[in-house]
């Protein structure tokens, strides 16, 4: 029997037995629900901020078009409604169905609001009003408004940006953070799963039967591939649903940003998982019972948690800063930070390539070392095996 | 080149200061049931784990058909470790199919064989249950099925009878016998000496990491100092014979131990000269007595 068949048998068992568990299904559903909630919340907040409903009554109704145009120029979406009875409309303002009610004829407009009123809306209305008055006076002076409008159209300040702001920066940051969070979750959860699997085999002693027919590295590799595939499946399901929802609610631009983030996310998940899974497995092979597992896993989990927490803060603050740049190149932190920085669009190609090369080198070294520790320690049940002993043998 | 023989040749193993095995040698031939007995910590489990390659010996060699056992030949061994081991959350059938596949069977073959052993060992109702939901006795049956499911060429079983009810003991004995008759060398360890005595073709007694005695049960029992049981009205005559020691006296019945070269017929004549003899037989030590002998000798030497 070939090694490939042995490894694939182990991987298949790990995959099938994990995907069938309720915790996998429930876990995936919960994450999707949280993500969906976030997307919906975003789109609702987005709507609320940008759209005002203004009731126009009497002569004010003729302001509907200029008001909407002007508002659009300010980046606000205004919906206008003609109202017939001012009394009803006032009640609607009180209820919140209308954001403002405008009555009277230019130049003496009245605006009724519930609380303090929207500043942008007030400014917009003032502008519209001034314009109306100006047009009326120009007409009296004999100049047609069209002539004035034509000569005004070409007049504007030429703006030169010293540090141009990416119009998609907000979206990029959101995607970067989500990618980093998903990778953090996947590495931690599936790394721990590998560790639990190793200890389960050790504590149930089934490992002795397995190792009478498998070599330690075959068992380890099969386990890592099988559970890594489960993690990848979950990541893909979550990402696909997340991107689908986001595009349905117009929260992010799926076609370019989202697709790229998904690709880098998968790449870095694979690199990160192979890097961490062997470490998790080697650490787990040192102990014989689930209760002892936490103590050996803490240093590894802490590294991932630090990478995530510190990385997130640095990424929001200064994604191109020296600290976050250096951290994102180092193999233990790269799988979480680099995809985040890539999504933000602040990682130059050479840095990405360097980080990938370093990660691959680290995987080779860790797999060799971790495989050795695992092979030496996995059959030694009872007291915790000292790392030095496992390495020396 | 010996065919179908598992040879354990002078294997030694030490854990730090503790010597677990010291030049342990024995062989198990095709179609033979070999019982492995010895007190706790004598080295039985270590020897079996070395045979399976789960442990590496410091020196010595394990051979199958005259060739050093390597990774591929190990696949052909059926193994039941002392510490029972199965995936607790895996279903009985899935587990057996998986183990059969790992030992090189194709998927269909593995299914057929797993179903076959499940039926054979009376586990049909439990085939879709998780192993952890089974009683210990049933888990033990699954464990045996796990050792047999890939139709191994050699069977190495560490304490296969411990924790079994009498019915399961019978099933297990029958299966082992059958396997041996099919030409598979079977070696198992046990503390149930009466069972070993009844079942095994040959027995090896282990003490302090090496083989103290091995052979058929008859060979082992006939070895050592001959003893006679004599029943006659008086037993005083015995003390007068040279080379005869009375070691037990119970009414009209006594047990005599004969020194080397003393003919039992001389003893019979001496007894008949005094009166009628109602019983005259050779007493052979049971395996338990032999075992106790080995263990106490070992204790004295240590």
TrEMBL record, chain A:
Residue ranges the record marks as coiled coil: none
Annotated localization: Membrane
UniProt keyword Transmembrane helix, yes or no: yes
Membrane topology: Multi-pass membrane protein
Pfam families: ABC2_membrane_3
Residue span(s) of domain ABC-2 type transporter transmembrane: 25-369
TM segment ranges: 21-41, 173-199, 220-246, 266-288, 300-329, 349-370
Keywords assigned: Membrane, Transmembrane, Transmembrane helix
PANTHER family in the cross-refs: ABC TRANSPORTER PERMEASE (PTHR43471), ABC TRANSPORTER PERMEASE PROTEIN NATB (PTHR43471:SF3)
Protein name (database record): ABC transporter permease
Organism: Lentzea cavernae
Automatic annotation (TrEMBL), chain B:
Segments forming domain ABC transporter: 6-233
Keyword set includes ATP-binding: yes
Pfam families, alphabetized: ABC_tran, DrrA1-3_C
Record-level Gene Ontology MF annotations: ATP binding
Keywords associated with the record: ATP-binding, Nucleotide-binding, Transport
Superkingdom of the source species: Bacteria
PANTHER family (alphabetical): ABC TRANSPORTER, ATP-BINDING PROTEIN (PTHR43335)
Entry similarity comment: Belongs to the ABC transporter superfamily.
Record's protein name: ABC transporter ATP-binding protein
Organism field: Lentzea cavernae
Lineage, top ranks: Bacteria, Bacillati, Actinomycetota, Actinomycetes, Pseudonocardiales
């Amino acid at each position: 029997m070939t090694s490939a068949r042995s490894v694939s048998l182990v991987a298949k068992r790990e995959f099938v037995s994990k995907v069938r568990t309720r915790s996998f299904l429930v876990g995936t559903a919960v994450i999707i629900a949280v993500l969906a909630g976030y997307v919906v919340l975003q789109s609702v907040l987005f709507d609320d901020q940008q759209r005002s409903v203004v009731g126009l009554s009497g002569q004010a109704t003729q302001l509907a078009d200029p008001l909407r145009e002007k508002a659009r120029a300010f980046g606000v979406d205004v919906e206008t409604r003609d109202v017939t009875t001012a009394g009803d409309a006032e009640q609607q303002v009180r209820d919140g169905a209308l954001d403002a009610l405008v009555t009277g004829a230019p130049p003496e407009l009245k605006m009724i609001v519930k609380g303090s009123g929207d500043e942008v809306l007030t400014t917009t209305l003032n502008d519209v009003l001034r314009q109306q008055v100006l047009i009326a006076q120009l007409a009296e002076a004999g100049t047609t408004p069209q002539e004035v409008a034509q000569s005004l159209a070409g007049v504007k300040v030429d703006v030169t940006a010293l540090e141009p702001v990416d119009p998609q920066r907000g979206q990029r940051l959101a995607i970067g953070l989500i990618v980093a969070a998903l990778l953090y979750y996947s590495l931690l959860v599936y790394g721990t799963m590998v560790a639990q699997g190793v200890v389960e085999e050790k504590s149930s002693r089934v490992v002795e039967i397995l190792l009478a027919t498998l070599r330690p590295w075959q068992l380890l590799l099969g386990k890592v591939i099988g559970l890594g595939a489960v993690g990848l499946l979950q990541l893909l399901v979550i990402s696909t649903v997340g991107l689908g929802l986001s595009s349905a609610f117009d929260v992010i631009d799926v076609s370019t940003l989202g697709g790229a983030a998904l690709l880098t996310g998968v790449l870095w998940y694979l690199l990160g998982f192979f890097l961490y899974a062997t470490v998790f497995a080697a650490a787990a092979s040192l102990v014989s019972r689930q209760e002892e597992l936490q103590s050996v896993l803490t240093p590894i989990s802490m590294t991932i948690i630090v990478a995530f927490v510190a990385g997130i803060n640095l990424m929001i603050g200064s994604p191109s800063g020296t600290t976050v740049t250096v951290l994102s190149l180092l193999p233990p932190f790269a799988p979480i930070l680099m995809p985040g920085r890539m999504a933000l669009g602040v990682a130059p190609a050479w840095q990405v390539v360097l980080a990938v090369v370093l990660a691959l080198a680290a995987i080779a070294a860790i797999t060799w070392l971790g495989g050795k520790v695992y092979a030496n320690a996995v059959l030694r049940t009872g007291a915790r095996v000292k790392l030095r002993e496992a390495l020396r043998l | 080149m010996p065919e179908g023989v598992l040879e354990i040749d002078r294997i030694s193993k030490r854990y730090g200061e503790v010597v677990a095995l010291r030049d342990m040698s024995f062989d198990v031939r095709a179609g033979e049931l070999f019982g492995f007995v010895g007190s706790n910590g004598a080295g039985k489990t270590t020897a079996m784990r070395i045979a399976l390659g789960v442990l590496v010996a410091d020196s010595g060699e394990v051979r199958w058909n005259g060739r050093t056992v390597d990774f591929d030949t190990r696949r052909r061994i059926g193994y039941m470790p002392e510490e029972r081991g199965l995936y607790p959350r895996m279903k009985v059938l899935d587990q057996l199919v998986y183990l059969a596949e790992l030992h090189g069977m194709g998927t269909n073959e593995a299914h057929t064989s797993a179903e076959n052993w499940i039926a054979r060992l009376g586990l049909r109702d439990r085939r879709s249950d998780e192993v952890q939901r089974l009683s210990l006795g049933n888990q033990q049956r699954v464990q045996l099925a796990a050792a047999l499911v890939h139709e191994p060429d050699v069977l190495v079983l560490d304490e296969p009878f411990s924790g079994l009810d009498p019915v399961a003991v019978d099933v297990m004995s029958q299966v082992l016998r059958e396997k041996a008759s099919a030409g598979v060398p079977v070696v198992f360890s046990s503390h149930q000496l009466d069972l070993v005595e009844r079942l095994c073709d040959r027995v090896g007694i282990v003490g302090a990491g090496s083989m103290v005695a091995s052979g058929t049960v008859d060979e082992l029992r006939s070895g050592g100092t001959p003893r006679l049981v004599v029943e006659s009205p008086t037993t005083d005559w015995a003390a007068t014979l040279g080379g005869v020691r009375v070691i037990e006296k119970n009414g009209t019945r006594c047990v005599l131990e004969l020194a080397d070269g003393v003919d039992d017929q001389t003893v019979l004549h001496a007894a008949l000269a005094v009166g009628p003899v109602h019983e005259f037989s050779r007493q052979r030590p049971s395996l338990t007595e032999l075992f106790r002998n080995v263990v106490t000798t070992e204790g004295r030497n240590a």
